[in-house]
UniProtKB/TrEMBL annotation:
Protein name according to UniProt: Response regulator transcription factor
Residue ranges of the annotated DNA-binding region, renumbered to this chain: 131-225
One Pfam short name: Response_reg
Domain OmpR/PhoB-type: 131-225
Protein keywords: DNA-binding, Phosphoprotein, Transcription, Transcription regulation, Two-component regulatory system
Domain Response regulatory positions: 7-123
InterPro entries named among the record's database cross-references: CheY-like_superfamily, OmpR/PhoB-type_DNA-bd, Sig_transdc_resp-reg_receiver, WalR-like, WH-like_DNA-bd_sf
Record PTM 4-aspartylphosphate, positions in chain: D56
Length: 225
């Protein structure tokens, strides 16, 4: 897909970072919107409905975590890809961010070229999900509409939660290794820890309300009922 069809919102309170990241994405053909604080990020996301939102965590007005939580609560933005660009890399901060519905983290400092390559990889994977709907164990998982239904009721999942569920449900009974999950859902371009998978699995279980994902200790996860 032509990069000109991708719309990216970057929110950061450091003008130099905004300028250089915007310049490099524009050079690759992306549409770029910028915001200097959390309140502006919310307003521009609601107006522009970007494909990807990049949020600094420590911003005035509203933090990146608060912005993420607000966007995820809005139907029009619930499937928007959201990643944090932050120097806060401690585990507690990552778990809190992922718990609000963020899809990933990019750690500061990062070179503009690496940033662009990561954005490209994330957006490509967002559109790479197979188009075949799954109907397994009372769950309808439709990647064309990004919809999960159980007994006729729609269940809202964040993008990475959906992709993880789709992967596991595509092969019921198969044990997916942790590194296999990381590779297929997050890709080799993004470095994430094991806790990232655990947080997403926990959120999926809570939202589905059924125990359909089994933990195989020290190995990985499998889908079964």
């Amino acid at each position: 897909m032509d990069n000109r069809s991708w719309k990216v919102l970057i929110a950061d309170d450091e003008p130099d970072i905004l300028e250089i990241l915007q310049f490099n994405l524009l050079r690759e053909g992306y549409q770029v919107i910028t915001a200097a604080d959390g309140n502006e990020a919310v307003a521009k996301a609601q107006q522009a409905r970007p494909d990807l939102v990049v949020l600094d965590i420590m911003m005035p007005g509203k933090t990146g975590v608060e912005v993420c939580s607000i966007l995820r609560a809005q139907p029009a933005l619930k499937d928007t890809l959201i990643i944090f660009l932050t120097a806060l890399s401690d585990e507690a901060t990552q778990i809190k961010g992922l718990g609000t519905g963020a899809d990933d983290y990019i750690s500061k400092p990062i070179s503009p070229k690496v940033f662009v390559s990561k954005v490209q990889a994330l957006l490509r994977r967002a559109r790479r999900t197979e188009s075949k709907a799954l109907d397994v164990s009372g769950l309808l998982i439709d990647p064309e509409r990004f919809v999960v239904e159980r007994e006729g009721n729609a269940i809202s999942l964040a993008k990475k939660e959906f992709e993880l569920l789709y992967l596991l449900a595509s092969r019921p009974g198969k044990v997916f290794l942790r590194n296999e999950i990381l590779s297929q859902v997050w890709g080799n371009d993004v470095i994430v820890g094991d806790r990232t998978i655990d947080v997403h699995i926990r959120k999926i279980r809570q939202k589905l309300g059924i125990d359909c994902i089994t933990t195989v200790k020290g190995v990985g996860y499998k889908f079964e009922l």
